[in-house]
Amino acid sequence: MPGEFDFIQRFLACFPRARVPVGPGDDCAVLAPSRGALCVTTDAVVEDVHFTRATFSPADIGHKALAVNLSDLAAMGAAPRWFVCALALPRDFPVRELSALGRGMAALAKAHRIALVGGNFTSARELSVTLTATGELSHPPLTRAGARPGDLLYVSGTLGDARLGLKQLQAGVRRGSAVRRQRRPEPRVALGRLAARFASAGLDVSDGLSQDLGHLCAASRVGVALELDRLPVSPALRAALGLEQARMEALRGGEDYELLLAVPPARAPAFERACGRSAERVTRVGVLTRERQWKIRDAAGRPLTPPDGFDHFARSSRQIQADD
Ligand SMILES: Nc1ncnc2c1ncn2[C@@H]1O[C@H](COP(=O)(O)OP(=O)(O)OP(=O)(O)O)[C@@H](O)[C@H]1O
Ligand SMILES: Cc1ncc(C[n+]2csc(CCOP(=O)(O)O)c2C)c(N)n1
Ligand SMILES: [Mg+2]
């Protein structure tokens, strides 16, 4: 049976040696940030809450654990730098699966140039991966609180795919673009850094557009007029549900890991041009308002009540319900 130190060695072997004053192996990592401010975030993925071992490979789990943290750094406009990784593993977890998890994480870390500088192992009944990630800012952070009435609201990519992917995995489907969005979210790091030059506020959509837009509105003390028929939906979601239902699923979403950005109208043309040049897809979906209420209209002009987003402690959150 491999011991704790074999686990540490196996995991570290997946990553290049970090170029920091003190890396893995001592009581703390020691980092030397450049002069800009540091962003710090932490997020966990937990077996049977964020993934199941029947539907995610170890590499998917490693990828997703880092992706959800990178998405928070992206939402602030930060450049990813260093992370630590706390793993809780069942006692019988095979070492080769740990290596596969490490390789899935290391591939995404390499793509975003973030270095593993430390971590922790513990035994546990369920598998969980908790990361703390840092990023550096070269400009003021993109917070949730800076939006003003009249700012235009943009969303990146497409919404609702990861939710569809989860339902497909629960129904036994193991392939396709929606399943990939659920297992392998791609954090919008480059877009976040670009958006920090133009946007007044931003956040990443992890709990669903309708919930996370509420956070932006509350923090910025604004309301919103959202155009449902502008919500970007993928061909896969549209094919699975039809356009009208696809838009409702895009609104409810969950685990989209897209960015929601408020941009002052005077900066919107330059923002759109910069996104075009960098091949970053963004869609204008509404406008922020002085009246602190929500106005969502469907294509027929009917007002809609926003659906609830994901809440870990709500009674129905252990699973997406069959009638949901
Ligand atoms: N245990 C905690 N101690 C201190 N602050 C916390 C704690 N849990 C959450 N927060 C803070 O509350 C805010 C909302 O947390 P939440 O986890 O919903 O973040 P999020 O970015 O909206 O979502 P996600 O976790 O999906 O990235 C964050 O600023 C977070 O730092
Ligand atoms: C097995 C399983 N059950 C449910 C879900 C759905 N889910 C889990 S966490 C979350 C919101 C974001 O997480 P957090 O708020 O922790 O960042 C969502 C939509 C899933 N992916 N897998
Ligand atoms: Mg977030």
From TrEMBL:
Residues annotated as binding Mg(2+) 1: T42, D43, N120
Further remark, if any?
Reaction mechanism of ThiL seems to utilize a direct, inline transfer of the gamma-phosphate of ATP to TMP rather than a phosphorylated enzyme intermediate.
One Pfam match: AIRS
Annotated PurM-like N-terminal domain residues: 25-136
What task does this protein carry out? Catalyzes the ATP-dependent phosphorylation of thiamine-monophosphate (TMP) to form thiamine-pyrophosphate (TPP), the active form of vitamin B1.
Involved pathway(s) = Cofactor biosynthesis; thiamine diphosphate biosynthesis; thiamine diphosphate from thiamine phosphate: step 1/1
Q: Any idea which positions bind ATP?
A: G119, N120, R144, S206
What protein is this chain from?
Thiamine-monophosphate kinase
Q: InterPro entries under this entry?
A: PurM-like_C_dom, PurM-like_C_sf, PurM-like_N, PurM-like_N_sf, ThiL-like
- In this chain, Mg(2+) 2 is annotated as bound at D43, D72
Lineage, please?
Bacteria, Pseudomonadati, Myxococcota, Myxococcia, Myxococcales
